Amino acid sequence: MIGASSPRKEGRAKVLGTAIYTDDKFMPGALHGLTVRSEVPRGILRAIHFGEGIPWEEFTLVTAADIPGTNLVASVVDDQPFLIGIGEEITHSQQAVLLLAHADRHLAEKARRAVRLEIEELPAVLDIQSSLDLQPLIYGADNLLKEIRIAKGDPDPVWAQAAHVIEGEYRTGAQEQMYIEPNAMLSVVEPKNGVLQVTVWGSLQCPYYVHGALKQLFGLPEKQVRVVAMEMGGAFGGKEDYPSVNGGHAALLAWKSAKPVRLIYDREEDLACTTKRHPSRTRLRTAFAADGTLLALEADFILDGGAYATLSPVVLSRGAVHAASVYRCPHVRIHARAVATNTPPPGAFRGFGAPQSLFAMERHMDICARKLGLDAVELRRKNFLRMGDTMATGQVIREDLDLAGLMDRALTAIGYRDKRAAFALTNPEDGPIKRGVGFSVFMHGCGFTGNGESHVASVAGVEGLADGTVAVLAASTEMGQGKNTVFAQIVAEALQLPVELVDTAPVDTDRVPNSGPTVASRSTMMVGRILEDAAIGFKQALVQQGFLAEPYTPETFQAAVAKAVAALGSLRCYGQYHRPPGLQWNDVTYQGDAYPTYSWACYAAEVAVDLDTYEVKVADFVAVQEVGRVVNPTLAAGQIEGGVAQGIGWGLWEEVTMQRGRMVNNQMTNYIIPTAMDLPRIQVIFLENAHAGGPGGAKGIGELPMDGPAPAVVNALENALGALRLDEVPMTPDRLLERCEEVTHG
Amino acid sequence: MRGYLPDFDVRVPASLGEALDLMAQRPGTFTPLAGGTDLMVVYNAGRLKPTCFLDLSRLAELRGIEEDATSLCFGALTTFTELRECRAVHQHFPNLVKSARATGALAIQNRGTLAGNIANASPAADTPPSLLAYGAELELVSPRGLRRVAYDQFHRGYKSLDLAADELLARILVPKPAGRGFHYFRKVGTRQAQAISKTCLAAYACIEDGCVAEVRIGLGSVAPAPVRARHAEAALLGQPLASLPVAAAREALLADMSPIDDIRASAHYRSVVTRNLLGQMLRELANA
Amino acid sequence: MADRIDLNLTVNGADHRVSVHPFTRLLDVLREDLRLTGTKEGCGEGECGACTVLLNGQVVNSCLVPAVQAQGAVVVTVEGLADGERLSSLQAAFLAHNGAQCGFCTPGMLLSATDLINRCPNPSDDQIRDGLAGNLCRCTGYAKILDAVHTAAADTGAPR
């Protein structure tokens, strides 16, 4: 039931090692597919040269010229080709030019190395400033992938009148999702009942995204394309939009060869060419009254969107809406831009723009507190949003909101005051270890921004099976977050059944409706809510058709379902998303209810810095959040712990090193994620505040924990080391040394 | 996985003698293979040139740790785990225990070998600084006989070893420190485990009459090969613990290092941090 | 081009003989020749530990072991941890604590943890961290994995 830590439905298979991930699926006679990519960031593809010593006639080869339908990946904007053709422009390093396949995987790799791409190089844009300066122009009329303006009140007159105006610039680097299972696809394309059938099995978050992309790639109707989501070894957004690309590639090879194809990326390739978190640059200007009241906020928020739009418009949207964070401010101007560069396009990664803008604002608040001579805690307390306040988009807070209580709870749990006092005494002493505590307060909008849910119009359902059990029909995918279990709990609760009688249908587009992508922290809240409705409808159908009488027991319910299925052949009930009354959003003015609700949090970190080596150890961490109602406490805690680990990694160690527009530290040994020895135990506290829109009052939780750790850790670094220029993540030891020397060397 | 299997062959000699004969008959043909934890990574990445491996992993003559009154003698195939678990290593060479513990993680330590760590000749390897600090000696074997080389003479430059085409590294001899000894080891990696060294300093000093009677400092990741910090050593030799010339030693260390910018750290970071490690070492030495 | 070898090895108590190129990775022998797909490939460079198996009683990265060096070896993979349908204490503890989220690191993690508890029957948090340092997890932040190992270590129905 809701609130219980029901064990994972697929847990047993995972500990037995019997769960089948994409590369585990046995496909006899399959060819091994590989991709030949540009190593040049921008240029014109002149020719593809096939080297000596390879039996090319044995190979399946696919170029842009082979594509039967449209050579564009269906996405928010259809601007990205699947393959670049002769005479066309290469717009980023690692762009796919040629696909090849052979039964011998070793020979396939040898062949890949034997292909030489002849590219006439062009000047490339490799950073945000060059893109803004149009040095050169590489996309559209102005190198902009998307631009958003959010305005509330009028900040302009405020600057001159305010007691204090403080500016700051903050940067965040790219981040790699580093799911332990690299991207993987299998495909079979064969005639079925006289027409071509394209089937793809893969590690993917959004089966209907891939379905739509394949339809467009092959020019086929809905019924001739089938996408099956396999067990996923982690995703975090990294398998949200990219699978349309590698799914398309696998299908093209399967189609050309008329054989099954395996397209399994190795880690080096995955790191170099798949999507990452968008790098960002934020410039903030804030006006304060003498007592610390926030009077005006101006944010210039820029994302490096790579060579194509992909998800940048949506990432930018979320980042822009979150830029003002959790503070009440009467005059706000947010100018957000996603700029094009000649780099592999970034995509989705847990947080999706919010970690970037929240890092800036939460860092900025601490710096403002210091410059104003005020306590960082009290500066925030004075300016926190409360019920009835208006956010930057004009959204009115209609729920009981106690950010001060949240903050106080976190600070008490980590011992904030005592530690600050103690460290103030010990830090000035001799010895290389300096300690600090810091915190961040933040929110995460649940579900899609604005009208997104209405556009998707998700459908999910419940089906009776012959044995009298119930199956959940939804396109949501399991990637470790436990959605199979949570959905079962929600439906079981709605039907008053034990959770053992509810299970999930395989996520196969032939079987399940489009309940939307598994993203945006929406599955529990949005799809779960639809499933609640579908379950109740299902029960009502049983009652109305005379199979079931109320009240019932689980046994009589099961018998009723079995009987109904036997009599009718099948019994399904679907629900669809309906926008809650009272929610309004204008996509043009960016005004209104950006999200149906928000989850709120305060995270606190204690750090120890070794000034001999500039290594930072996170000694303690507290995560306090209000997420409506917790459906499954164990799974929910797991989400927080995992998200905090990723957030700390982003804050301290995870750096994507680019040279000539491509990642050069593309090996696990050189892209540093935390090991078990690098993280402390994390104290997780949930506060509940039921939200009417979610099933049982649940809000979204998956991405929230990504937003808070980096600013909390960097704020703690400032407490440990003093007023250094700590305005960037990752704050690696090399970078920290540099910032310390800025102060000592003047 | 990018290794092209058909390019590779493996011979499994039944004895050290057979291995040496094979190498002598066809110099340059074979790549000696021990635990494979370095070579297999390069192979998997498709960056290994075609070769025939000579699998030494079963040669009993290369295994074992022997102890006598004055030294410990490690067979070439001694693994990092064996170093960690050997009581005599804990007793006499605590830096070697730390080196072993700092290498990769357990799965690597179970397979990686001392000889592999030396012969792979990475400047970032974790045991060489400790071997330099302890004044290790290598025993090289070929059909022509045995040859001893002081380890601090073994590296000639980046991936260039005093190792003839027909020679194998057979044993590593490490003299037991005598008298009142001070040991220091610190590796600074990219994280707390599974980390390649950004810099590493290992030191051994012998103290007599309150002065530094003997000192050896081994450095990793700050030069084309593991090196002795001879300038820093010279600044410390004979000095009283009560007033060690910290500034002079840190300054002298600059002449011992030639760090580079690479994917893990900048040359500047390495230079600053290695001097700080020396500073920490001297703080501990002063309190010894 | 090398001749194939007859590789004899015992995996999870069963004897096998397969004809392979001597430099085939043990990981590929397990997954492809023996169709034991529980052991995973996450990196191919000995960093992530998803390919961890027990080789002659020691944890190793099977992506770094060439077949020729596994000749005559005794190997244990995740498929060998349960006793028929009965989960090992460690597997049961992982299930109870949600120590497996996406589950991809789990097979390797279970092997390393099984080895750890055998060597160190009552490990502290720090000892567990040290024992599992070579197994990367991206989902859990390791917290529930540590809890699961503590529970399994305390369980008197000792794991294999």
Layout of helices and strands, plus pairs?
The complex is a heterotrimer of chains A (746), B (288) and C (160).
Chain A: H1 11-16, E1 31-37, E2 43-50, E3 60-62, E4 89-90, E5 96-102, H2 105-114, E6 115-121, H3 128-132, E7 144-152, H4 156-161, E8 164-172, E9 184-192, E10 195-202, H5 207-218, E11 225-229, H6 242-257, E12 261-264, H7 267-273, E13 280-288, E14 294-304, H8 312-321, E15 331-339, H9 354-372, H10 376-383, H11 403-414, H12 416-426, E16 433-445, H13 452-456, E17 459-464, E18 470-473, H14 483-495, E19 502-504, H15 523-544, H16 554-568, E20 571-576, E21 585-586, E22 591-592, E23 598-610, E24 615-626, H17 633-652, E25 658-659, E26 662-663, E27 682-687, H18 704-707, H19 709-721, E28 728-729, H20 733-744
Parallel strand pairs in A: 1-12, 8-28, 10-11, 14-15, 18-19, 24-27
Antiparallel strand pairs in A: 1-5, 2-4, 2-6, 3-5, 7-15, 8-13, 9-10, 9-12, 13-14, 16-23, 17-18, 17-20, 21-22, 23-24, 25-26
Chain B: E1 8-11, H1 16-25, E2 30-33, H2 39-44, E3 51-55, E4 65-67, E5 71-75, H3 80-85, H4 87-92, H5 94-102, H6 106-109, H7 114-119, H8 128-133, E6 137-142, E7 145-150, E8 155-157, E9 160-161, E10 168-175, E11 180-189, E12 197-208, E13 211-220, E14 227-228, H9 230-236, H10 246-253, H11 267-286
Parallel strand pairs in B: 1-3, 2-3
Antiparallel strand pairs in B: 4-5, 5-10, 6-7, 6-10, 8-9, 11-12, 12-13, 13-14
Helix pairs in contact in B: 9-10, 10-11
Chain C: E1 5-11, E2 14-20, H1 26-33, E3 52-55, E4 58-61, E5 74-76, H2 89-97, H3 106-119, H4 125-131, H5 143-154
Helix pairs in contact in C: 2-5
Q: Order of strands across the widest beta sheet of chain C?
A: 2-1-5-3-4
| Helical stretch tally of chain B | 11
What is the number of helical segments of chain C per DSSP (H or I, 4+ residues)?
A: 5
Roughly what percent helix of chain B? 25-40%
As a whole number of angstroms, the C-alpha radius of gyration of chain C is 16 Å
Q: Which percent range describes the beta-strand content of chain B? A: 25-35%
Report the average pLDDT across residues of chain B: 97
Describe what you observe in this structure.
- The complex is a heterotrimer of chains A (746), B (288) and C (160).
- By secondary structure, chain A is α+β, with helices and mostly antiparallel strands.
- Helix content of chain A is 30%, strand content 24%.
- Chain A contains 20 helices and 28 strands.
- In chain A, the strands form seven sheets. Chain A has a seven-stranded mixed sheet with strand order 3-5-1-12-9-10-11, with helices on both faces. Chain A has a six-stranded mixed sheet with strand order 7-15-14-13-8-28. In chain A, strands 16-23-24-27 form a four-stranded mixed sheet, sandwiched between helices.
- In chain A, strand 13 (280-288) and strand 14 (294-304) form a beta hairpin.
- Chain A starts with 10 loop residues before the first helix and ends with a helix.
- The mean pLDDT of chain A is 96.
- Chain B is α+β, with helices and mostly antiparallel strands.
- Chain B has three domains: 7-55, 2-Layer Sandwich (Uridine Diphospho-n-acetylenolpyruvylglucosamine Reductase, domain 2), CATH 3.30.43; 60-175, Uridine Diphospho-n-acetylenolpyruvylglucosamine Reductase, domain 3; 180-286, CO dehydrogenase flavoprotein, C-terminal domain (Enolase-like, domain 1), CATH 3.30.390.50.
- Chain B has helices spanning 16-25, 39-44, 80-85, 87-92, 94-102, 106-109, 114-119, 128-133, 230-236, 246-253, 267-286, and strands at residues 8-11, 30-33, 51-55, 65-67, 71-75, 137-142, 145-150, 155-157, 160-161, 168-175, 180-189, 197-208, 211-220, 227-228.
- In chain B, helix 10 runs antiparallel to helix 11.
- The longest helix of chain B has 20 residues, at 267-286.
- The radius of gyration of chain B is 19 Å and the shape is globular.
- The relative contact order of chain B is 0.11.
- The longest helix of chain C has 14 residues, at 106-119.
- Chain C is elongated.
- Classes of the chains: A alpha+beta (746), B alpha+beta (288), C alpha+beta (160).
- At the A-B interface, helix 2 and helix 20 of A face helix 11 of B.
